[in-house]
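Hey,
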Amino acid sequence: MLPISEDYAQGPVRASDGRGGTRPRRSGRTALAVAAGALLLLVSACSGGSGAGSTEDDAAPAAPGARQVDNSPSQAIVTIAPKDGADGVETSGALKVSAEQGRLTTVTVTDSKGTPVDGRMSTDATSWQPVRHLAAATTYKVHAVAEDEAGRESAKDTSFTTLVPQNTFIGEFTPEDGSTVGVGMPVSLRFSRGITNPEAVEAGVKVTAQPSVPVESHWFGNDRLDFRPEKYWAAGTKVTLELDLDGVEGRPGVYGKQKKTVSFTVGRSQVSTVDAEAKTMTVVRDGKVLKTLPITAGAPSTTTYNGQMVISEKYKVTRMNGATVGFGGEYDIKDVPHAMRLSTSGTFVHGNYWAAKSTFGSANVSHGCVGLHDARGAGNPNTPAAWFYDNSMIGDVVVVKNSKDKQIQPDNGLNGWNMSWEEWKK
């Protein structure tokens, strides 16, 4: 026990404040309290616990649910092919992302413009591949993340550049972008090089319609690909053609270079039926007969094809030379009026000013075309040929029946309607 100081017994003592005055001197009671508090604090701080005699081994346990921090590296390994910085990479089959000892959680591939590449993840999330080809001469960035069983992440970032093709191809398309066409107009692509990998090329072409209707494709040879619905388009349909051919290897070492979207509108419905035996043409628009016109069809030795034909070209005046279609020098007419092409081989609906007016509706005298009475120079708007020309558009259908000839081949013009739906889909 500390002794009681003499100062405490005698009461407060004042000391000099250095300025000629005095200040109270701390009492013995106050000094004792401070000393005791300091001692207690020292004992508590050294004990490491709240109770007397507690030790470091008695420290309180971690709070329930607290997660232990694991700073060890992830066991997941991300692999990206091609390697970082690769150049001249193939546009198909080269890009692959995989994970070992873990699963992929993120795969992002973008081109130099930031456009993402769609891909497909495996069911076990250990591999990823693009769903389509890549574009040629393009730099891509790849970002991939995988996690192991403990949830620890591993990431990898690479970039590569695809090849620059030395040989390319394009697809010339019909109809024109922004056009309005008849209900019989197919989408037709003519490729500048023969295609030996049709599946890859077809995967890069998409045709859709609004209102929606199933649209199927058909190859004619190795350089032409057409699309159509089962029946004629409905009037007012909006059709879109998407060409994603940039980087498609159409044949060994030959790559597509198109990435383009084309759209057109289907106008009113017009189907005209030529009866070669009756020598008439009945024009039906939106289900109603507009006119029945007298015609002349192919003569007995040069009959007109039967079948469904689509108007593919229109010329107010054009030249027709028999030598270009296998008739030698039988005719060469430099100013055929109001001509509309129905076949590649030279079948037209056109005006005829050189035959007597009485011929139309009474005799078949042409070289296989369908003729309508007309005036030379296409200057008379009141002739049957002028009327039909003015009331027709590319894509309108002309059906020929009762001719003593065979049915026109589906690839002779835009005439795939002469195939059954089942045959077309093959």
